[in-house]
Design brief:
Layout: E1 5-10, E2 15-22, E3 25-34, H1 40-44, E4 52-56, E5 60-61, E6 80-82, E7 85-86, H2 96-102, E8 106-109, H3 113-123, E9 126-132, H4 137-146, H5 156-159, E10 165-167, E11 173-177, H6 183-190, E12 195-199, H7 205-209, E13 215-218, H8 229-238, E14 244-247, H9 249-257, E15 262-278, E16 283-294, E17 303-309, E18 315-320, E19 325-328, H10 342-353
Parallel strand pairs: 3-4, 4-6, 5-7, 6-8, 11-12, 11-13, 13-14, 14-19
Antiparallel strand pairs: 1-2, 1-9, 2-8, 3-9, 10-12, 15-16, 15-17, 17-18, 18-19
Helix pairs in contact: 8-9
Amino acid sequence: MEIMKAVLGLEDGTRVAGEGFGSEGECAGELVFSTQMGGYMEALTDPSYHGQILMFTFPTIGNYGVDRMNFQSARVWARGCVVREACPIPEARPSLSSFFEENQLLGIQGVDTRMLAIRTRVKGSMRAGLVVGDDDSDRAIELARETPPLSEVQLVPDVSCRQPYRIPGKGKRIAFIDLGLKKNMLVSLRHRDADVYVYPHDCTPDQAMESRPDALFISNGPGDPVAATHAVRCVRELAGTLPIYGICMGNQVCALGLGAKTYKMKFGHRGTNQPVQYKDGSIYITTQNHGYAVDADTLPEGASVIYENVNDGTLEGFEDTYLDITCVQFHPEAHGGPRDTEIPFFDTMFRRLS
């Protein structure tokens, strides 16, 4: 079988040749890395990776094939995939390579992902171009330099639902703003029999209140949280009116709605092994995917940090007990460790609403 050529180029001029898998073509986006060993399809189908080329640092990806049951959306949102090795003969199901080929997706393997991860940690996340089916490294670098930074691109409208919809339940009524939601968030709410009303990203405060909700929930999403202006407005105008909860970008949106600031991180947190410390000293291993963070020093009076990242001290969650706002930067619905945060986050949420 003939090996398909492929090359990855970074905006700083770095070029890495490898073997292509999937379909021939080209793409560009911010190159980011994830340290997870499994859950690769959950990551690839996470709408928060829209606009990015996703690189996995674990040496072999695809060892159990493509598990459609755990897709977080209906499609792969990452623009491209970079791995050291795409497992050619998985334990079960279609291989990652065959799935990429069937769905016209772009991937490159046989590259030094360790070197690229170290380079990203030193220089920060960079724009990248991926060419599959050719080894034109100049074209790959050109693609990287031509693609705009994430802060200049509107990504949320692409991943949000187009029209409101309802997932009926007999429990508490939740108004859910979809900025690029992961399926497991809805699963976690439905496990608690919530009556969920899902609204598009451009939902207004009046629309969010039409269902007479018991709480407002803001989802994750791609890109710069500052661009989620409609959701920020909902938080700003509804804070104090009803309880508000947020996850990932939802955490950032809630902070912005209260007047705090966010910033772009050097290379972000992505993977299933990020340690966070709760305010009582408890440590949890969490799943994360974010390149922006809330500046803890800009939180308004009344809001306090409840989770911190053990590695770098960045804000991983905050609350305002007076306004009844609780948010986390990590993904409690993703079951990242032996002491999962789904139960404390969602059970605490519904206990407060009862």
